[in-house]
Structure formats: C-alpha cells, structure tokens
Write a structure and sequence with these properties.
By secondary structure, this protein is an all-alpha fold. It has one domain. The chain has 2 helices and no strands. The chain has helices at about 15-35, 55-70. The longest helix is centred in the N-terminal third of the chain and has 20 residues, at about 15-35. The radius of gyration is 15 Å and the shape is globular.
C-alpha cells in the first residue's frame, strides 16, 4: 500500500476521470513543493471498480479501511491516522 491508493468515493454527478486527474495534479504540486523538487509522481492511468449494488458497499469499505493493516503499516485500523469511511 505504500505505493498506491485505495479510495472509495461517491461520484453522484461527477466525472471520475476529471476527479482523478485533479487529485493527482493537486497532490503532486503540494508534495513536490513540500519536498523541494519537481516532476511526475503518479503513474499514468488508474484502475476503477464500480459498486453497483448497495449491499456490496460495506464490504468494499471495510476492505479499503483495513488495507493499511494488511500492508503491515499498522497493527490496527484505529492506528492509521488517514482512514475515514462513512460507509463502515
């Protein structure tokens, strides 16, 4: 998980490709500014998975929230400061 992002987002009327582009752009600008460097940070493209049935949402949210534990970054979900999911 240190080399990728799992993100669960409700789009409603938004366009996913524009949202991903904006997140990549803004985060690259801020991280490069913080590190005093320039250049690309993200790989091209992304992988998406649409949740089509409401009953699948909670399971997917739990998977995303538990990812730092599976990656060995923390012992417990509660120890990871960057998690937040209204669907859990």
């Amino acid at each position: 998980m240190p080399d990728h992002l799992h993100w669960l987002v409700a789009l409603k009327e938004a366009d996913l490709s524009r949202l991903v582009l904006r997140v990549k752009s803004r985060s690259t600008i801020e991280i490069n500014r913080f590190l005093g460097r320039s250049g690309r940070m993200w790989q091209k493209g992304y992988h998406d998975h649409a949740i089509r049935q409401e009953e699948d949402l909670r399971g997917v949210a739990r998977y995303v929230v538990a990812n730092p534990v599976r990656a060995g970054l923390v012992q417990s979900v509660r120890d990871y400061p960057h998690w937040d999911a209204r669907w859990v």
